Amino acid sequence: MKRIFLFLITNVAVMVVLSASMNILGVGRYLTANGLDLSQLLIFSAIIGFTGSIISLLISKWMAKQSTGARVIDPQAPANAREAWLVDTVYQLSDRAGIGRPEVAIYQGAPNAFATGAFKNNALVAVSTGLLESMTEEEVAGVLGHEVAHIANGDMITLSLIQGVVNTFVIFFARVAGYFIDRVVFKNDRGIGMGYYITVFVCELVFGVLASIIVAWFSRQREYRADAGSASLLGSREPMIRALARLGGVEAGELPKTFQASGISANKAISAMFSTHPPIAARINALHAAQRL
Questions:
Q1: pLDDT (tens digit, 9 = 90+) per residue, 36-73?
Q2: Catalytic residue selected from 83, 103, 139, 147
Q3: Sign of CA dihedral 130, 107, 1, 170
Q4: With 243 labelled, which of 184, 193, 213, 281 sits at a CA distance of 20 to 30 A?
Q5: pTM of the entire structure?
Q6: What does the H/E/C string look like for the chain?
Q7: Which one has a higher pLDDT value, 121 or 268?
Q8: Listed residue (268, 237, 246, 10) closest to 111, CA to CA
Q9: Is 133 a residue of the active site?
Q10: For 144-189, how does the pLDDT look when each residue is reduced to its tens digit (9 = 90+)?
């Protein structure tokens, strides 16, 4: 509950502060005596949509550490041989990928891992104790290669930009629909009526669900690319294939909702359309198919 609360309160705070600020500065004055000023509305929507997404990206490392309780390993003084190996492996993979060496962390939990951070040269790779205890070093290396590939591919930035775009259109079209319903259905021709506020609220919920399908689709594509990236960095697809097969036989550790799209594996979604990760069998088949090419 603490993890979900942190995520929700951060996003609500960003939206409230930005909306108020834009209205004070006049950017939010998209409702005029002549109707909707679509240019002003688009500017307002883009500022709210992208700024919220960018702020979430910039604080992603801090949020990840706070919500998972991840402990960053001191590369100069690892606590044991396993931690030393973990840091050394991540560093080797990062050097091969041509990115800066990320922070390496361990957190308590069932098998899972994630990578996050706003910049390729200042990222975080974290693995759970459950993953380290249930996999061989070769399999863990495959997972680490997958996470490093996410960083090298700029997946966190790309996904944040996509989220910013869909946020913009959700805010924009919800307000266009609100204005239309308020004027046509509720016959309100003086300022903003309750029809506008009710419609905007409902449309943001509905459009937000539809937008999440788009974001989830992009997230699934990046998982395939990260799997292939792991194979490239390790010079073999077998470690990633074996790691995925291992994950297919255990229950994936649940990550905080904020970072679920960053994890190596996701729990079953209500619908495949909303899943941030493809089925493990599909990912293994994709690696086998690439191996035959």
A1: 878 888 888 888 888 888 888 888 899 889 888 999 99
A2: 147
A3: negative
A4: 213
A5: 0.82
A6: CHHHHHHHHHHHHHHHHHHHHHHHHCCCCCEECCEECHHHHHHHHHHHHHHHHHHHHHCHHHHHHHHHCCEECCCCCCCCHHHHHHHHHHHHHHHHHCCCCCEEEEECCCCCEEEEEEECCEEEEEEEHHHHHHCCHHHHHHHHHHHHHHHHCCHHHHHHHHHHHHHHHHHHHHHHHHHHHHHHHCCCCCCCCHHHHHHHHHHHHHHHHHHHHHHHHHHHHHHHHHHHHHHHHHCCCHHHHHHHHHHHCCCCCCCCHHHHHHECCCCCCCCHHHCCCCCHHHHHHHHHHHHHC
A7: 121
A8: 246
A9: no
A10: 999 999 999 998 888 888 888 888 898 899 989 998 998 888 887 7
The answer to whether 247 and 111 have CB atoms below 8 angstroms apart is yes
Instruction: Check whether 104 has a pLDDT greater than 50.
Output: yes
Using the structure block, give the residue that is written with the tokens 């104790």. 129
pLDDT at 8 over 60: no
Residue the block writes with tokens 């000023």: 37
